[in-house]
Design brief:
With 246 residues, the protein is of the alpha/beta class. It has a single domain, classed as Alpha-Beta Barrel (TIM Barrel), CATH 3.20.20.70. 41% of the residues lie in helices and 15% in strands. Strands 1-2-3-4-5-6-7-8 form an eight-stranded parallel beta barrel, surrounded by six helices. Helix 5 runs parallel beside helix 7. The longest helix is centred in the middle third of the chain and has 16 residues. The two termini are 12 Å apart. The relative contact order is 0.16. Bound molecules: phosphoenolpyruvate.
Amino acid sequence: MRRKLVVGNWKMNGSRLANAELLAGLEEAGPFDADVAVCPPLVYLSEVALSLQGKRTAWGAQDCSARDSGAYTGEVSAAMLAEFGCKYVIVGHSERRALHAESDQLVADKAKAALAHHLTPIVCVGETLAEREAGQTDVVVKRQMSAVIHTLGHCISQIVVAYEPVWAIGTGKTATPEQAQAVHALLRTQLHAATPKSEEMQILYGGSVKPDNAATLFSQPDIDGGLIGGASLKAADFAAICRAAA
Ligand code: PEP
């Protein structure tokens, strides 16, 4: 049986004080019978890493460069993240695909760079509202996944996948458990053709997961936890979602 994973994507939120309070609240509410991780803004990474040292909660980054080093102003490499004890790095979040014009291939290259430095990439895929309404959901997520499968080869089994319908992110609109499960099953079938380990892979759902809808979503057979944005900023809400994953 796959273990559930709940990851908090803090996006560009927080402050040193707010982060300390959030982590203290989470620590007090735990431990949880699920894997839990937080992805703070980069500038807070070392402080978060220090405060989580020796605790059960893992940490990660929200993005990494596809390159190892060099003249790439503003970028941070996977090797640098590894130095700070990151376990995970999110790649291909829809906000980066949309606001930074990240292509499917760039996302795949970032996932490859992460694996090369022993980080687990959390690869996000998902369709926009227009794509869903045009009946393109399956084509879009399969295309996004396919670039990663082709780039990683047999290493594909080492990634975590996050299905995040773009229309559900930060909007309060959640995919129904059935809608989400249908896409998760589709992705697992696609992964099955690429690796004998597809049944062991974690496929997370993200998009307005809240304490009141988490348990139903996580009870679907192919939903192995969540990538949580807004609700990961409140210790009580995030803790309730982690409990729902147990
Ligand atoms: C996200 O940004 O990955 C996300 C799922 O956000 P929210 O939970 O706020 O919809």
